[in-house]
Specification:
Blueprint: H1 5-18, H2 21-42, H3 47-63, H4 74-93, H5 118-126, H6 130-141, H7 146-153, H8 157-179
Length: 181
């Protein structure tokens, strides 16, 4: 289900003006699949954690929808909350390492297919740093432009471009190993 900007604003207005839970439920219905997909990628496939983070995201969004500024798209704002929830979860578990890790070796799995499978690509993306993974997912899977990714991650646009560039190079290196197997 998709909605246009006018329908989205109408639902948000109903949520704010009348505390209409049904309107918020419609917003959840529209955005839950892409939000869960985004969180699933960030959590490296941990469905339970992704669902917990999505639930927390929607709860926080409902409680603070009055703070949503009219210029901001609801989807961008929602993904920002989700990204913050993910980062806060990481902080609770460990201190965030801001340096890029070395690329671990990919297990040897020979394939008869000449093209890289979706599973192989997913495995390669999971080897990126949290920030690079978030930027790649938002750019390629959610079709967010650089400016919206910047809004979601609170990174300057130049930094988003840099993370995207490094992620592409790292993915090329990782995927090159599969090419010659």
């Amino acid at each position: 289900m998709t909605i246009n900007r006018f329908q989205e604003l109408a639902l948000i207005t109903r949520c704010v003006a009348a505390d209409d839970r049904n309107a918020f439920g419609q917003l959840v219905g529209v955005y839950s699949e892409s939000l869960r997909r985004f969180l699933l990628g960030l959590t490296k496939g941990d469905a339970a954690l992704a669902d917990d983070l999505a639930q927390e995201t929607f709860l926080k969004a409902y409680l603070s929808i009055r703070s949503l500024e009219g210029v901001t798209r609801f989807r961008t704002w929602l993904f920002r909350i989700a990204y913050n929830e993910f980062v806060n979860n990481l902080r609770r578990k460990r201190k965030i390492d801001t340096t890029d890790e070395e690329c671990p070796d990919i297990p040897d799995e020979s394939s008869d297919e000449p093209l890289i499978s979706a599973d192989t690509l997913t495995e390669a993306i999971m080897q990126l740093s949290e920030t690079q993974r978030a930027v790649v997912q938002l750019f390629y899977y959610e079709d967010f432009p650089i400016a919206r990714i910047s809004a979601v991650t609170s990174l300057p646009q130049a930094t988003v471009r840099s993370h995207l560039f490094r992620a592409r190079n790292r993915l090329a290196t990782i995927l090159e190993k599969y090419r010659y197997q």
